[in-house]
Every structure is written in C-alpha cells, then in structure tokens.
Design a protein that fits this description.
0% strand; mainly alpha; Arp2/3 complex 21 kDa subunit ARPC3; 7 helices
Length: 173
C-alpha cells in the first residue's frame, strides 16, 4: 500500500470539510423542493485506489453517520454511503476493463480523463442517490416523483463534482 501521510491528512481534512459544507450550506439550499445536492459523496469518489475495502466501508459509514447526526435522518445517509463504497470497486473494475489502465493514485478528472471520470461519477452518484431517496420514502406510492427528484439531484451533484474537479485541476495550457 503506497498511501502517504499527505494523502491521509488530505482525506481527513476533506472528510470533515465535506460534512460541514453539506450540513451548513447545501442542506439549506431550497431549489424547488426537487433538487437536493449531496456533494459529500465526493469524498468516497476521491479515495485512493489502494484504499483497503474495510477502510473504504468504515470511512463511508462514518461520513454518512456524520451527515445523519446533523440532519436527524436515522442512518439513511450512512446506508447510502456504505452501499456506494461497496459498489465503488465493482464500478472501477467495470469502467476500467479492457485496455484502459488506472493512472495515478486517486480517481480524478486529471488522471483518468473526462470520459472515465464521468462514467465513474455518474454511476456512483446514481447508486448513492437511488438508495438515499428510496430508503427515505420506503414505498412505491411516490415512485415517479421520487425518481424525478433522484435525477435532478444527481444531475446537480454531478455538476458540482465536475466543477470542483475543474477548479482543483485547472488546465495549464
């Protein structure tokens, strides 16, 4: 395992920043009642490729639990985050199958390119949001209304992630 202390520190800072950013800012945005950005999932997406599965699941659980504690959602975010973390290695292997090899230590727009990163982000954000929204209502009565919320919120979350990636790694040319 080739994870440096700088990477560990960066991920700890990112962990707490994303929880507070989600709770203090994004949870208070009212975008028509249908768009709820859940940007904290970005933490799971940016964990290094070599992160052991147990650490991936445990850190995702505590990430979701941190959101749940502040929003009083009784484990909804924790369960959606753990499911996303569980699916992450499978999504990476499916997207990276074939001739593409993983570049760098962490998944990023800069390392993997737009196509790979977009597939990766869309897949994991949809998994997360699907679990979160359907566990929240826990019935099929409002299936289509929830599906619209899921699509709009996922789109907004994906846009926030892509904007963040472009801000973190601006083109030098």
């Amino acid at each position: 395992m080739d994870i440096t202390s700088r990477t560990v520190f960066l991920n700890i800072v990112r962990f707490f920043f994303l929880i507070f950013f989600q709770v203090l800012i994004l949870n208070h945005l009212n975008l028509g009642g249908y768009i709820n950005p859940y940007f904290y999932v970005f933490f799971i997406l940016l964990l290094p490729f070599e992160t052991p599965r147990w650490l991936l699941l445990l850190s995702s659980f505590f990430l979701g639990l941190g959101i749940d504690l502040f929003t009083n959602t009784l484990g909804l975010n924790a369960s959606a985050s753990v499911l996303t973390a569980f699916a992450r290695p499978f999504v990476i292997s499916i997207i990276s199958s074939g001739t593409e090899s993983l570049i760098g230590n962490t998944p990023s727009l800069k390392n993997q390119g737009l196509k790979w990163f977009l597939y990766y982000t869309i897949s994991l954000v949809l998994i997360h949001h699907f679990a979160l929204f359907y566990l929240e209502i826990f019935r099929f009565e409002e299936f289509f209304q929830t599906f619209v919320r899921l699509l709009l919120s996922s789109t907004f979350t994906i846009l926030l992630i892509l904007i963040s990636e472009y801000l973190m790694y601006p083109k030098t040319k």
